[in-house]
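> call design_seq(struct)
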Protein backbone atom coordinates (compact mmCIF):
# COMPACT_ATOMS: atom_id res chain seq x y z
CA UNK A 1 0.00 0.00 0.00
CA UNK A 2 1.37 3.31 -0.95
CA UNK A 3 0.23 6.83 -0.77
CA UNK A 4 -2.91 8.61 -1.82
CA UNK A 5 -2.82 11.30 -4.40
CA UNK A 6 -3.53 13.63 -1.48
CA UNK A 7 -0.86 12.32 0.88
CA UNK A 8 0.22 9.44 3.07
CA UNK A 9 -2.15 7.39 5.18
CA UNK A 10 -3.06 8.89 8.55
CA UNK A 11 -1.78 7.31 11.77
CA UNK A 12 -5.19 5.71 12.36
CA UNK A 13 -5.91 4.57 8.77
CA UNK A 14 -6.27 0.81 8.25
CA UNK A 15 -4.25 1.28 5.02
CA UNK A 16 -5.93 -1.64 3.27
CA UNK A 17 -8.78 -2.21 0.78
CA UNK A 18 -11.12 -0.04 2.88
CA UNK A 19 -8.93 2.95 2.23
CA UNK A 20 -9.42 4.05 -1.37
CA UNK A 21 -8.42 6.91 -3.60
CA UNK A 22 -10.64 9.47 -1.91
CA UNK A 23 -10.91 8.41 1.74
CA UNK A 24 -8.80 7.13 4.59
CA UNK A 25 -10.70 4.68 6.82
CA UNK A 26 -9.80 3.25 10.22
CA UNK A 27 -10.29 -0.26 11.48
CA UNK A 28 -13.89 -0.79 12.62
CA UNK A 29 -14.66 -0.28 16.30
CA UNK A 30 -17.43 -2.76 17.16
CA UNK A 31 -19.88 -2.68 20.05
CA UNK A 32 -22.03 -5.80 20.39
CA UNK A 33 -24.98 -6.43 22.67
CA UNK A 34 -25.59 -10.17 22.08
CA UNK A 35 -29.13 -10.90 20.97
CA UNK A 36 -30.04 -7.23 20.74
CA UNK A 37 -27.76 -5.49 18.32
CA UNK A 38 -24.40 -4.38 17.07
CA UNK A 39 -22.86 -1.05 16.13
CA UNK A 40 -19.75 -0.29 14.10
CA UNK A 41 -17.90 3.01 14.31
CA UNK A 42 -15.31 3.93 11.66
CA UNK A 43 -13.18 7.06 11.46
CA UNK A 44 -13.06 8.54 7.96
CA UNK A 45 -11.11 11.40 6.35
CA UNK A 46 -12.54 12.51 3.00
CA UNK A 47 -10.65 13.88 0.02
CA UNK A 48 -11.02 17.44 1.33
CA UNK A 49 -9.45 16.54 4.67
CA UNK A 50 -12.72 16.65 6.61
CA UNK A 51 -13.01 13.89 9.21
CA UNK A 52 -16.10 11.99 10.28
CA UNK A 53 -17.16 9.24 12.61
CA UNK A 54 -19.27 6.88 10.49
CA UNK A 55 -21.73 4.82 12.51
CA UNK A 56 -23.63 1.73 11.31
CA UNK A 57 -25.92 -0.18 13.62
CA UNK A 58 -28.03 -3.32 13.44
CA UNK A 59 -30.87 -3.52 15.94
CA UNK A 60 -32.79 -6.74 16.56
CA UNK A 61 -36.47 -5.88 16.09
CA UNK A 62 -39.36 -7.54 17.88
CA UNK A 63 -41.69 -9.75 15.83
CA UNK A 64 -44.64 -7.59 16.75
CA UNK A 65 -44.96 -4.76 14.21
CA UNK A 66 -46.09 -2.14 16.69
CA UNK A 67 -43.20 -2.97 19.05
CA UNK A 68 -40.72 -2.95 16.14
CA UNK A 69 -41.90 0.54 15.18
CA UNK A 70 -41.52 1.72 18.76
CA UNK A 71 -37.99 0.31 18.75
CA UNK A 72 -37.15 2.15 15.50
CA UNK A 73 -38.66 5.39 16.77
CA UNK A 74 -36.67 5.06 19.98
CA UNK A 75 -33.49 4.41 17.97
CA UNK A 76 -34.06 7.53 15.85
CA UNK A 77 -34.76 9.67 18.89
CA UNK A 78 -31.64 8.44 20.64
CA UNK A 79 -29.53 8.86 17.50
CA UNK A 80 -30.61 12.49 17.33
CA UNK A 81 -29.52 12.93 20.96
CA UNK A 82 -26.23 11.16 20.22
CA UNK A 83 -25.45 13.41 17.24
CA UNK A 84 -26.38 16.50 19.22
CA UNK A 85 -24.13 15.51 22.11
CA UNK A 86 -21.20 14.80 19.78
CA UNK A 87 -21.79 18.14 18.02
CA UNK A 88 -21.41 19.96 21.34
CA UNK A 89 -17.66 19.33 21.11
CA UNK A 90 -17.30 20.87 17.65
CA UNK A 91 -15.27 24.08 17.72
CA UNK A 92 -17.16 26.94 16.19
CA UNK A 93 -15.62 29.87 14.38
CA UNK A 94 -15.64 32.97 16.55
ZN1 LIG B 1 -5.42 5.58 4.14
Amino acid sequence: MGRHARGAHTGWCAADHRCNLTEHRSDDLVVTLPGFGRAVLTRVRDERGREYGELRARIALDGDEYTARVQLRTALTDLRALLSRAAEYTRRAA
